[in-house]
Design a protein that fits this description.
about 70 residues, mainly alpha, membrane
Length: about 70
């Protein structure tokens, strides 16, 4: 759970930096605020947190496939 939360927070931080940096470069920052980017980052973080629970823990997952 802590690993999922840490990964989510890191993803949110990275998303915020990239999104707001892109807004500054393209000139969109004067039409949108940093708080809007933080709101987008929050929704992105919720998606990442929930998506991590659907990942498979192991590629084999108990399958003993010996087809070689």
């Amino acid at each position: 759970m802590i690993k999922r939360l840490t990964t989510t927070l890191l993803g949110m931080l990275l998303y915020t930096v990239v999104a707001y940096g892109g807004n500054l470069v393209t000139g969109v920052a004067k039409h949108s605020s940093f708080w809007e980017v933080l709101g987008e980052s929050l929704f992105f973080g919720i998606f990442v947190f929930l998506f991590q629970s659907f990942r498979r823990k192991d590629a084999t997952d108990g399958k003993n496939d010996k087809t070689s």
